[in-house]
Amino acid sequence: MHLSALLIHPVKSLRGCAVGSAAIDERGIVGDRRFMVTGPDGAFLTQRTLPRMALVATRLDDEHLTLHAAGHGSVRVQRAGDPGADRIRVSVWQSEGLLAEDCGEEAAAWLSGFLAARCRLVRAGADFRRPVRRAPAGFGDRQVGFADAFPGLLLSEASLAGLNDRLVENGAEAVPMDRFRPNLVIAGATPHAEDAWNRVRIGDIFFRSAGPCARCVVTTTDQETGERGPEPLRTLAGYRRDPAKPEDVNFGLNVIPETTGGTIRVGDPVTVFA
């Protein structure tokens, strides 16, 4: 098995991008969900209610995050924390009162204009602290950025291929990997083998399972067009319901890096440990 793709989502719920390598720090995969769009009350905005967010492309270079949307131009902000930026309190699900850095009026106006909703762009700077709320035993000190709950999401190519076989059999179209917004895409596994992985090494970096990923309506949003339909969630619900929590439809594995430091790269070998 090997890492066949490495995907980051610089801004929570905006379009992601593929990279060849990424460093690991105390919040997980560097560059992933270190920015977030919030409403006036500081609560996060998401494709769940604003599928148009999928139309905003993201790009990172060494110093800047750039947002771009067709017909709307682009806007750029610095990646690094800014000691002079305004601090505002934001929330992600049950994580409330998080201290984030406001990215300024230009980014706020650009996003508000495109999304047709009052919003601001915020950054996880030096004062940002967010413990992983449902970390496995021994990982209670782990941090996460603006992801829903965990620092990483792993999914195998075989699991997606199995789903697409079912979709096509049912007369629906196959869906691409970006519907599921993973970070770590694994080739060479069998379908849903990742369900049973407890500990996995990718290159020199070890990751610990944080349990299955329960999927939501975002999987039904085309990441290129913003259009939404019933699939693939409808088909997944037919064979991927959690036996202990039938309201959850699982697809992919949440993971937490065991250590900080180091780099993962596309092509790295993958080894599973009990």
Report the major sheet.
Answer: 8 strands, mixed
Query: What is the number of strand segments?
Result: 18
> How do the SSEs run, as a string of H and E?
EEEEEEEEEEHEEHEEEHEEE
Shape: globular
CA radius of gyration is 18 Å
Strand fraction band?
Answer: 25-35%
Number of discrete helical segments:
3
Which segments are poorly predicted (pLDDT under 50) over 5 or more consecutive residues? Answer: none
Question: Main sheet: which strands, in order across?
Answer: 2-1-13-12-16-15-14-18
Q: Give the termini distance in whole angstroms.
A: 16 Å
Characterize the structure shown.
By secondary structure, this protein is mainly beta. The protein is built from 3 helices and 18 strands. Strands 2-1-13-12-16-15-14-18 form an 8-stranded mixed beta sheet. Strands 5-11-10-9 form a 4-stranded antiparallel beta sheet. A 3-stranded antiparallel beta sheet has the order 4-3-17, with no helix packed on it. A hairpin with a 2-residue loop joins strand 3 (21-25) and strand 4. The longest helix is centred in the middle third of the chain and has 13 residues, at 157-169. It is globular, with a radius of gyration of 18 Å. The mean pLDDT is 97.
